[in-house]
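queue> pop job 88
queue> type: inverse folding (structure -> sequence)
queue> payload:
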């Protein structure tokens, strides 16, 4: 890197990637315990199969590696554990917070359904929408279920797209669950968002099986 490049880079604010302060194996153990707790909370039976173990391991890889990606996208059909894994991530993060593992820095993860985000935008008080958009770590549930465009006082807006663009430009940790395929995401949101996702998102694909029986 040339000295001129270094000087220009020094003018920019580089954000640290969201990581767990532990080894991969410790992250797997923590996420597995948190996943089991989420299943028990819903009064369901935890199924210890290779698919769940693989999803947890891939999430642990992301959370303990030095990667340029700052987002997660969990893709798959209904009822195969995407939401449970995201709530397990938040629960595990909260536990690390309580134990002071983030060097006295508070790390919180906010979760909102994509349809509720669209409603927040059109509310009279937009502070909750802006607070979510600017939060350091967020999870957007069920992306693709919300209306892409809405009318707000005669103006056509795309609330979820606006959030994704903002978080891409500011390199903020963003996790998404969706039932859409990558091809469907490109068709629904356009090439611009699809290309943003290719750069920022680590994709974890969930198999076509359901635990809701």
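queue> result:
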């Amino acid at each position: 890197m040339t000295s001129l490049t270094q000087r220009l880079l020094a003018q920019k604010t580089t954000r640290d990637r969201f990581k767990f302060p532990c080894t991969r194996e410790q992250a797997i153990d923590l996420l597995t315990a948190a996943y089991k707790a989420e299943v028990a909370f819903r009064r369901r039976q935890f199924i210890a199969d290779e698919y769940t173990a693989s999803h947890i391991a891939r999430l642990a890889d992301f959370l303990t590696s030095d990667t340029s990606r700052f987002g997660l996208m969990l893709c798959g059909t209904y009822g195969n554990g995407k939401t449970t894994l995201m709530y397990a991530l938040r629960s595990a993060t909260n536990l690390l917070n309580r134990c002071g593992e983030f060097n006295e820095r508070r790390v919180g993860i906010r979760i909102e359904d994509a349809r509720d985000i669209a409603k927040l935008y059109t509310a009279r008080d937009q502070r909750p929408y802006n607070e979510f958009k600017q939060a350091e770590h967020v999870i957007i549930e069920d992306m693709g279920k919300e209306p892409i465009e809405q009318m707000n006082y005669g103006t056509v807006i795309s609330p979820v797209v606006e959030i994704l663009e903002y978080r891409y430009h500011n390199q903020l940790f963003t996790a998404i669950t969706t039932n859409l395929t990558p091809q469907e995401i490109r068709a629904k949101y356009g090439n611009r968002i699809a290309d943003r996702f290719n750069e920022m998102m680590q994709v974890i694909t969930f198999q076509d099986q359901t635990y809701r029986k």
